[in-house]
Amino acid sequence: CGTVWALLPLVLITARGDGVIPEPFEMEIGSINSYAWNSSNPSVRAEITASTRPLMLTNTPVDSWAARKWTPEALAQLAPDVTLPIKNESNPVFYMGCCLLNRVKLPELIKMTEANAKQHVYFSGPLEILGPRVASQADPRVFDVDEAGGKPMDGFETKANLWIGNKGVITPTHFDEMHNIFVQIHGVKTFTLFPPSFWHELQVFPKFHHQHRNIQLDLEDEEVMNKTIENARASGNVLRVTLSPGAILYLPPLWFHRVETKSESSISINIWSASRHVLEVNNAWEENFPADSTWGMEEFLGSYSVFIKGLIDNLIPTKQKRGQFLWDLLKTRYLGLEAAKGEGDLTTTCPFDVHPESEEMQQHRKYIKDVEEQAPSFLSQSGYKTKDLGEYKIDVTPPIKKWCSKVKAPLKAIAKKYVEPVVRHFKGLNEGIMEIYLGNYIEDIVSQAVGFKYISEFIKSCLLPAYISQRV
Tell me: the pLDDT tens digits for 273-289? Predict the structure, then answer.
């Protein structure tokens, strides 16, 4: 408190004959403010993460890292015996679960990045895979924001990640839940960025889908990308910046980003650290809703619908906006996938190709299986799964609309009582982040009641009618 600081407007310095060095980044769309790191300022990390928009960081401790001098050849010499799990494909777009992993020595990977432009090579993994001697040439600890206040959160610990790839490699548009400080070590990368509030245009995958945090909109289609950027530009909702060696980009949590390697090869390091947003959502989950094991499905679904509508009413200001939020949640996360899935599983239906035996897909199947076995939905526990017709069993669509249509007064009172403790964890989040996490929370709560399969049906039947008359 009391520290006065300012975000400096971005000034691109062109190379001149007088020795002036150009900035290691170039804006193509929009503008990004710069922030000069001051190691003597104890609030420096808090000041950076207070920004709700990306920043270019200058004068940081990265300038003294030995890793700043890494080239592909130098890195191969430093760690010649290190084996890395890589992805190697003709398709430059490395979707989650796209392909199987191949294990190669680091020098072989470096040769692959330089020798074969028709094959795209991609490595992403923890910096420490290089071994302590080499990994210590970068010190990610200086960028540990620790907004969780030291509270352990599985999967959200501070971590440094190493990225190696060749020309044309694309990490498709997605968001991360943590603070992200991205350091370009070697080569050139271009970031296309959208704020969290643009989620309804980008069409985020459902919470329980294997592509969670990625988007359904195909921005690898040039026409779709151009149209999306045109729409986003009109509302100031897109940035594009190209990073050269030495550039350091800060991305706030939940900013969507697409990354493309523009040089023959690229080496990058990024540091993720926990955000208060994740902490707040985790705390919201600790406010246990008091479901009673003696309830029937009418009591479960009725009280859950009252509870969720209470959250929406307290967090979104008008009835029109509440209806729009729910409609966008349903339309952008579910309706397209439901139209495409046929007889498939909604949690794995995908508009682009994935390898069913990829590491990511195996992990996802295990996750879904564990959830269904260890925390089955109330619907599943009630036995309302299938109807036995002797030799055959058929799925029976549960009467969800009927179950949630009538709620007894005592249950309404119980449901409303638990709204405020949950609401307070969401109220400090900015609008776009709050809406993404509220959508995730609603999906979590509803899946507890009816399972993954009927989340969209619950939204259609139990929530939307309270706000809009449009039928789906």
Answer: 888 888 888 889 888 77
Distance of CA 429 to the CA centre of its chain: 16
With cut-offs at 50, 70 and 90, classify the pLDDT of residue 389: very low
Residue 383 CA to residue 135 CA, distance in Å, equals 53
Find all residues with CB under 8 Å of 443, minimum gap 6, and list them.
Answer: 206, 207, 208, 333, 455
End-to-end Cα separation, the chain, in angstroms: 50
SS (H, E, C) 188-248: CEEEEEECHHHHHHHCECCCCCCCCCEECCCCCCHHHHHHHHHHHHHCCCCEEEEECCCCE
Q: Taking a C-beta distance cutoff of 8 angstroms, is the pair 297, 384 a contact?
A: yes
DSSP string, 348-384: T--SS---TTSHHHHHHHHHHHHHHHHS--HHHHTT-
> How far is the C-alpha of 374 from the C-alpha of 456, rounded, in Å?
22
User: Is the confidence at residue 254, as pLDDT, over 60?
Assistant: yes
Contact of 217 with 203, CB cutoff 8 Å: yes
User: Does the structure show a pLDDT above 90 at 402?
Assistant: no
Judged by phi (left if over 0) then psi (alpha if -120 to 50, else beta), residue 379 lies in alpha
- Residues 210-222 have pLDDT tens digits of 999 999 999 999 9
H or E element at residue 440? helix 431-450
* DSSP for residue 322: H
Residue 50 half-sphere exposure, CB side, CA atoms within 13 Å? Answer: 12
pLDDT at 10: 36
The strand pair at 33-36 and 55-58 is best described as parallel
CB hemisphere CA count around 172 (13 angstroms): 23
Evaluate the CA torsion angle 22, 24, 25, 26 in order and state its sign.
positive
Local confidence band at 370 (pLDDT 50, 70, 90 cut-offs): very high
CA distance 174 to 261: 16
- Predicted pLDDT at 42: 85
Question: What amino acid occupies position 122?
Answer: Y
pLDDT of residue 153: 59
